[in-house]
Structure formats: structure tokens, C-alpha cells
Amino acid sequence: MEFQGARENNMEEEEEAAEERIYVAVGNETAKNRSNLTWAIDNSEGSKICIVLIHQPAQMIPVLGTKFHAATVDEELVRAYREKEKANTDKILDEYLRICLQKRVHAEKLCVEMDSIEKGIVQMISQNRVKKFVMGAAADKHYSTKMVNLRSRKAIFVCQQASVTCHIRFVCKGHLIHTREPIINEVQALLSSEVEEGEEEEERISRTSSCRSASTSSYYGGSEASSSIDIDEVSSIITEETLSNHSPPPSLPCSGMGLGMITFLINSTKLLHRLAIQNQKQPE
């Protein structure tokens, strides 16, 4: 029990820490991402900053002036090149940390290795339970005063795929372009998903029932023919042996109909056969 309690306390502390931090996505070129980080710092309201860099390991490894795919190069050479990449990534992140230091903001760095930057961001948000995240809406060169939509493919992907509990702000050249509001917690997110699925299922059932009703009406000669049958009359005329010597009509698509409707259709069928028999017995 003590272990369980300690684990729950650690989870609560991690969630509180995530609430306090603002995660900011940056790129390999400090000059092109400085404005986004500066905006996040200026709007942090005292929160800690976590600088996130998604590192894409190179697939082509330089060897003797020529590049070869990593899968075809000796493992030792690949490992040595990966070490150089890591050292360069740390250097880039340290440059961003200095920007935060200059503004007297406490910051930390986080590097995630992933072949896809946008997928790396989505994964990072999920694994770290990120509640506040800032990233670019587009490159600074694309900014204009009329810009209101996301123009970056990465930004669009993150906006659509990231955890719904994360509050994401997309900025460009120091200007807020778009905000994706969060759903407060996982329970609300789950309920929202179930409601949407329920509405879709209800709409599907409604369309199916309408089609089946139309099909049934057509079989009996349309809505006018159906409405001309008196249910009380049906009840007074129908007997158990009415259809004993007659084949039933084609099977009807009754799945999804209420019990009352199915009973009405069966009784209507019996009545039609009864009337047909009576007509045949009348003298010409």
C-alpha cells in the first residue's frame, strides 16, 4: 500500500510539474526560432520553460567524402556519427537556454529523437502529459498581418493529432496566430468521444430506418394504401387459419422497427390475403 501511495504521489507531482511548465518547440536554426521562444517567455506568466527539439537522425552517413545509407555503414562509424549529432544538438539547445537566461527565466531542455518532427511532438506531448505547448504556425518569412490560419504542415498535424488535454498556441514571428483550446481532462475527452460516436450511430440508425420504412411503404402500394387499413378492422377479421393454405409475401426488412410496427405489418398482410380470398368466393 505504501508503494502504491508513493507512486500516486509521484504521478501527482509530475502532473503538477507539467501544469507549471510551458513546452516550446524549436528548430536547429536558433535565429529562425528565436521569436517563438521569446513570445513564449513573454507570455509565460512566471511558468518554467521547457525547450523541445525534435532531432531527426541522419539517414545518410558521410564516409571518405561520400554519403552512404546508415544501414550499409559499419556500426562503429554510425555510432561515432550519432555522437557528433548529439553534441551538435546539445550545443543548439544550450544557445536557446542562454536566451532564457538573458531574460532571467528558468528553463530546461528536452531532445526527442524521431524520424518525423510532427509525430515526435505528438508523442512527446503524450508521454510528458504536456498541458501547455507553443510551436510555430509557419516560418517567420510567411507571416503577414492577414494571417489567421496555420500554414505549416507540421502545425496542422499537431493541431489535429495531439492530446486534446493540451492547450496549444501557434505563433509566427512573435504573433499569436491560432489557439487550440484543451478539453479539461481525460474523462471529459472520453465522454466527448463517446457522445460523438453515439450521435453518428443515432444518425446512421435513423437513415437506415427511413430507408426501410420507404421500402415497406412501396411494397404495400405506398403510404396511402397503408393508411387506408383500419387496425381495429384487422383485429376483428384475422383468424389463425387465414394463411394456412397461402404462401407468405416476400420477407420484409423489419430489423430495427418497433414491435408495434412489425405487428401492424403482419396483420395488414393477413387482412390483404383475407380480402383476396373473399373476393374469389363472391359469385360473378
UniProtKB/TrEMBL annotation:
GO molecular function, one term: ubiquitin protein ligase activity
Biased amino acid composition, Low complexity: 207-227
The protein's enzyme class: transferase
EC number: 2.3.2.27
Keyword Nuclease applies: no
N-terminal signal peptide: none
Record-linked InterPro entries: Rossmann-like_a/b/a_fold, U-box_ubiquitin_ligases
Oxidoreductase keyword on record: no
Region (Disordered), start-end ranges: 195-227
Catalytic activity: S-ubiquitinyl-[E2 ubiquitin-conjugating enzyme]-L-cysteine + [acceptor protein]-L-lysine = [E2 ubiquitin-conjugating enzyme]-L-cysteine + N(6)-ubiquitinyl-[acceptor protein]-L-lysine
Keywords noted in UniProt: Ubl conjugation pathway
Protein name as catalogued: RING-type E3 ubiquitin transferase
